[in-house]
């Protein structure tokens, strides 16, 4: 009954809801487009004010955060919802079938830059709240929204913002709808992310490239140096040999292992999608490797000459770029130090340069709130969501779990093929409305649990 009531209401307000989203989608809030960013933040602020949210723009070192809250009772549950109103650039524009800032519905999909990433998802959150208010009146929980304007730049000031506004942001749960739902179309709940450490190592030989005959056997070749070093860092089975690399890794719990086993796995389909037909492992190992194990990836190596014809030189430098995905509770700084120590011991002439990092996060699957959200999502969608203990990629989810010290759940509302960051970005209309219903039902069920 309750859920049908939501469906009816959303259906009745379909055009209104789409219009509200379209207003936001028309604003060219590309992260680097300062005027449009400010305009978008202000439009969002007034949208939130009409919902009765106490809203403010808060300055950061870059684009402002739009923060809004609707507080009822300190003793009640507080939900903090995160999203971002900035969007990616649109190039190459000629590959779009319609204007990226003139939203258009074709074949049941809303086409526009930001449709899925992330304006459609954040509007679904706001309209979910609106739907709740229209159907039931006062909210049964406290709700806070934080919408940032720099996600597409790597959330440059988010950690600092959270650090400086801990009291304002205090909550029982952080809830994010960003990214895409599962390939199968099933709702997907993510309980964390892998972190990442990016670094560069450079070996040096002579001061400049040398003639390989005239100085062959005389000046050292840095490409060999670098390869020798790399071979001391990882064995043939993929185990990282850097002392202490695995020390801080949190062991997956029984519950997490069980969740991994439940995730759908079609080896042949995946093999085709990733262009690697030799893929040969069971689903549990596949997901374990993607969510519970760090990587030690060479992203690129550069040295000497690899062009057409021959150029007989001894290169003067060899450089490797590495990105190392980290899992809870590895610490990028600590791992970087350990790598430095390893290099110093094996070949002190090689320089190691830190290029950036993001910490991993993982909210324990055993928490009661995880089950409560899973149930609310299941009821809204009429099917059990897939629960993945971590996403293989990286997002700044640690700002919630570590800085704010609050559990965090990511529940993407957008379709798998939303083409975010690409031409013809889209959000299925049904996904938009399902998201609105999901937020509305989440607020309702969290409220019932509360009393
Ligand atoms: Zn994005």
TrEMBL record:
Task: Please verify whether the record's keywords include Metal-binding.
Answer: yes
Coiled coil regions in record = none
Q: Identify the InterPro entries for this entry.
A: Bact_exopeptidase_dim_dom, Cyt/Met_Dipeptidase, Peptidase_M20, Peptidase_M20_dimer
User: What are the alphabetically sorted keywords of the record?
Assistant: Hydrolase, Metal-binding, Protease
| Span of domain Peptidase M20 dimerisation | 206-349
The organism's place on the tree of life at top rank: Bacteria
Under which name does UniProt file this protein?
M20/M25/M40 family metallo-hydrolase
NCBIfam families, alphabetized: PRK06446.1, PRK09104.1
The record's section on Pfam families has: M20_dimer, Peptidase_M20
Annotated source species: Jeotgalicoccus nanhaiensis
Q: Where are the transmembrane segments?
A: none
Q: Does the keyword Metal-binding apply?
A: yes
């Amino acid at each position: 009954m309750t859920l049908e009531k939501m469906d009816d209401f959303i259906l009745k307000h379909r055009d209104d809801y789409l219009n509200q989203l379209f207003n936001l989608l028309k604003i060219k809030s590309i992260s680097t487009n300062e005027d449009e960013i400010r305009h978008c933040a202000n439009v969002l602020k007034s949208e939130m004010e009409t919902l009765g949210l106490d809203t403010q723009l808060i300055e950061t070192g870059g684009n402002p955060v739009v923060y809004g809250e609707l507080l009822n009772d300190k003793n009640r549950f507080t939900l903090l919802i995160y999203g971002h109103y900035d969007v990616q650039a649109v190039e190459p524009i000629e590959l779009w079938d319609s204007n990226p800032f003139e939203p258009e519905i074709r074949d049941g999909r809303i086409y526009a830059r930001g449709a899925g990433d992330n304006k459609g998802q954040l509007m679904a959150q706001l309209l979910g709240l609106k739907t709740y208010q229209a159907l039931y009146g006062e909210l049964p929980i406290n709700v806070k929204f934080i919408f940032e304007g720099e996600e597409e730049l790597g959330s440059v000031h988010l950690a600092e913002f959270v650090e400086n506004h801990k009291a304002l942001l205090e909550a029982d749960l952080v809830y994010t709808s960003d990214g895409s739902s599962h390939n199968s179309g099933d709702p997907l709940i993510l309980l964390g992310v892998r972190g990442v450490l990016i670094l560069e190592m450079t070996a040096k030989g002579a001061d400049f490239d040398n003639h390989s005959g005239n100085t062959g056997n005389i000046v050292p070749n840095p490409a060999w140096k670098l390869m020798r070093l790399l071979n001391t860092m990882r064995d043939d089975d993929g185990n990282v040999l850097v002392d202490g690399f695995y020390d801080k890794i949190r062991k997956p719990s029984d519950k997490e292992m069980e969740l991994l086993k439940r995730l759908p796995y079609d080896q042949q389909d995946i093999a085709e999608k990733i262009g690697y037909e030799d893929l040969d492992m069971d689903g549990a190992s596949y997901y374990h490797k993607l969510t519970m194990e760090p990587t030690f990836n060479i992203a690129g190596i550069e040295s000497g000459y690899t062009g057409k014809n021959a150029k007989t030189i001894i290169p003067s430098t060899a450089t490797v770029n590495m990105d190392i995905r980290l899992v809870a509770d590895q610490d990028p700084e600590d791992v970087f130090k350990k790598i430095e120590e390893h290099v110093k011991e094996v070949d002190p002439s090689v320089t190691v340069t830190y290029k950036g990092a993001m910490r991993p996060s993982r909210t324990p699957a055993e928490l009661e709130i995880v089950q409560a959200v899973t149930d609310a999502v299941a009821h809204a969608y009429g099917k059990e969501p897939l629960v993945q203990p971590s996403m293989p990629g990286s997002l700044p989810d640690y700002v919630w779990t570590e800085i704010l010290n609050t559990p965090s759940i990511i529940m993407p509302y957008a379709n798998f093929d939303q083409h975010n960051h690409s031409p013809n970005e889209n959000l299925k209309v049904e996904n938009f409305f399902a998201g609105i219903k999901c937020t509305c039902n989440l607020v309702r069920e969290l409220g019932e649990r509360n009393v």
